[in-house]
Design goal:
Elements: H1 12-18, H2 22-35, H3 41-48, H4 52-61, H5 70-83
Helix pairs in contact: 2-3, 3-4
């Protein structure tokens, strides 16, 4: 069962000024929130629209270390249960 979805509206002009696609912007936001320890690996990979392995590759390409502790593991397990996987 999926949770409630919240949309963020970004004016086209702002998106064009970034020179990014919507997907690239989502990935950038996911990386930033993961780096600031606001999202777990699983949550950040979902926001980025990537598998956890793909997201790990994105982090590695940017020399961003993983910070993964027991609390994050428990959060990821809960997220997977919510997703029904």
């Amino acid at each position: 069962m999926e949770g409630k979805l919240t949309a963020i509206v970004i004016p086209d002009e702002i998106l064009r000024n970034t020179g990014m696609t919507e997907q690239e912007l989502a990935q950038t936001l996911a990386v930033a929130l993961f780096q600031k320890e606001r999202l777990s690996l699983g949550q950040a990979s979902r926001l980025a629209g990537m598998s956890q392995w793909e997201f790990r590759g994105l982090l590695a390409a940017q020399d961003i270390p993983l910070h993964y502790d027991v609390a994050e593991l428990e959060q990821d397990v809960a997220t997977l249960r919510e997703m029904g996987t």
